[in-house]
Amino acid sequence: MAAFVPLLRGSGTTAYADGDFNIEDGVLTRYSGTAEEVVVPDGVTTIGKNAFNSNITIKKVTLPDSVQVIDDYAFNECRNLVSINFPEGLLRIEWAAFAKCSSLVSINLPESLTSISLGSFSGCVNLRKVTIPSKVTVLWNWTFNGCTALETVNIPNGFIGIENSLFSYCRSLKNVMLPESLTYIRGEAFQSCPNLTKITIPANVTEIGDNAFKDCETLETVNILALNPTLPELAVFENTPVKTVHYAGTEAQWQSSAWAGMFTSDPSVTFSYDPGEFTIENGVLEKFTMGNETDITVPYGVTSIGNKVFDSCVDLTSMTLPDTVTSIGDYAFYGCNRLTSVTIYAKAPSIEGSPFNFSLAATVNYAGTESEWNASG
Question: Phi and psi dihedrals of 45, rounded to 5?
Answer without folding.
Answer: -105, -20
